[in-house]
Amino acid sequence: MARSTGHSRPVIKDVAKLAGVSAPTVSRYLNGTAKIAEDKRKRIAQAIKELGYEPSMAARALSNREMDSVVVFASKPDEFSTSATNHGVEGAARKRGFLLNIVSLDEADIASVEARVRMGLAVRPAGVLVYEYGWAGVEALKVVPSNVPTVVVGGGFGDGDYQVINAEREGGRWMTLHLLDLGHKTVFHVRWSQESGDNSRTNGWRDALLERDIDVPEPIVIPMGDFNKAVAAGRKLGRRKDATAIFAATDELAIAVMKGLREAGRRVPQDVSVIGFDDMAFDAMWEPPLTSYTQNFHEMGERAFRMVFDQIQAKRRGIEPPPAQVEIVQGRPCLRASESSR
């Protein structure tokens, strides 16, 4: 139970009195603006716990100090991957008493990214998360100052000292091997035009074919968001007798390709097996239910916040930051009915 101070809410002076230090020392402890002796830090932390003291974010903002908040710079804000990651970050931030600010980045207007990042940093967040789910995230990372606690979410290995990455490449490899294990001689691949980093599902597809000593066909690249072109790609593949298995880089692409196959008179999965990636909510309701690969974006968000929070705490306490780290979040296949053996 929090100790009573005679006020409706404890203030810094109450913490300072209980800890036996000055109010400015407590303020420095809270804001990480200077190193504080270990014994004083422990007494302040204990006093805060006993009193149930909660720093005022509004007061911190008015005094031009960083706030208990984290800003997310989100590429591809309208996609499931981004919204699911946001939910994970928000839940973890709420448990720590932090606010989450989301700044959307426009993939179609890369020139605007720098201004958007500077606007997000103007509220003086304690830390930053950059979603490298697209090229806008790559550009945003170039603008974030090196002294701001930062975690990269997604992208390629080594894009940041602190990074949470999904196993996209391994997922693409697994899905391709699954089709080959069903007896298909090769697997064709359809992907969007915008794809970055070495940790891509396309590279996983290529890895699997090379692993089985199979010639790698050229992937069919669809302009970003052009579903008519994706349907046309399905029709084109439908006219090829050797196209018995197709790995689409997203579930939306898979469904568009399936439409094109039907228009070409090919049946799924009797004539052609089609699988997607991302495990969207509608996959199980499609006809036939779409086999896909689910990525645990919620867990990625939780881990990313914990990683940036550890950096923030180290900075505020004037101690060395945690060692650089990359955490890989595994996904899993969701086998349904859109593929069959040969």
TrEMBL record:
Keyword entries, A-Z: DNA-binding, Transcription, Transcription regulation
Any single Pfam family the record assigns to this protein: LacI
CDD domains assigned: HTH_LacI
Superkingdom of this protein's organism: Bacteria
SMART domains tied to this protein: HTH_LACI
HTH lacI-type domain mapped to chain residues: 10-64
Gene Ontology molecular function, alphabetical: DNA-binding transcription factor activity; transcription cis-regulatory region binding
Claim: DNA-binding is one of the keywords in the record: yes
Protein name: LacI family transcriptional regulator
Organism: Bifidobacterium cebidarum
